[in-house]
């Protein structure tokens, strides 16, 4: 079984965000940092070199033998978009909120937003809060 390479470390999430070269991504990341801290009540922790995570849970894939630890919620300011890791079993139960969110894309477990001004922040807050509640269970 392959070992998960993205693990929590002692690097500062705030320092990571402050060093983001793109001003808009840096500002959007600060907004996400505050949003995730407010929703979870947890402090951020770096996972690998570019993921800001909150909390931790152990997962085990039903489709493969992969398992490991992963943040309850996380985001990463990637080059193309802000990547939000806010679900661990897909977006099936989130269609109503996603329809109201604004411009975004999804994959199985990631929400991609080019910039926060493209989305309704109150809807994003609801998505993050709902996801956190579901994952914690």
Provide the β-strand percentage band.
15-25%
Helix/strand class: alpha+beta
Q: What is the averaged pLDDT score? A: 92
End-to-end span in angstroms? 26 Å
> What is the overall shape?
globular
Helix content: 25-40%
Helix segment count? 4
Biggest sheet, in brief? 6 strands, antiparallel
- Listing every helix as H and every strand as E from the N terminus to the C terminus, the arrangement reads HHEEEEEEHEEH
Alpha-carbon Rg, integer: 14 Å
Instruction: Work out the number of β strands.
Output: 8
User: Low-confidence spans: pLDDT under 50, at least 5 residues?
Assistant: none
Strand order of the largest sheet: 1-2-5-6-8-7
In short:
The protein is α+β, with helices and mostly antiparallel strands and 137 residues long. The chain contains 4 helices and 8 strands; from the N terminus they run H-H-E-E-E-E-E-E-H-E-E-H.
Layout of strands and helices, then pairs:
Layout lengths: L12 H6 L4 H18 L3 E4 L3 E4 L2 E4 L6 E4 L2 E5 L4 E4 L9 H7 L3 E2 L3 E4 L7 H16 L1
Antiparallel strand pairs: 1-2, 2-5, 3-4, 5-6, 6-8, 7-8
Helix pairs in contact: 2-4, 3-4
Describe the overall structure:
This protein has four helices and eight strands. By secondary structure, the protein is an alpha+beta fold. A six-stranded antiparallel β-sheet has the order 1-2-5-6-8-7. The longest helix is centred in the N-terminal third of the chain and has 18 residues, at 23-40.
């Amino acid at each position: 079984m392959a070992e998960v390479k993205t693990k929590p470390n002692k690097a500062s999430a705030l320092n990571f965000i402050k060093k983001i070269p793109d001003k808009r991504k840096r500002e959007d990341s600060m907004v996400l940092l505050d949003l995730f801290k407010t929703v979870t009540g947890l402090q951020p922790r770096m996972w690998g070199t570019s993921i800001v995570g909150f909390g931790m849970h152990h997962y085990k894939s039903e489709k493969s033998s992969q398992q490991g630890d992963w943040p309850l919620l996380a985001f990463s300011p990637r080059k193309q978009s802000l990547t939000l890791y806010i679900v661990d079993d897909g977006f099936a139960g989130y269609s109503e909120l996603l329809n109201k969110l604004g411009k975004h894309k999804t994959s199985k477990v990631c929400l991609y937003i080019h910039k926060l001004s493209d989305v309704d922040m109150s809807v994003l807050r609801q998505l993050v809060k709902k996801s956190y509640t579901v994952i914690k269970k």
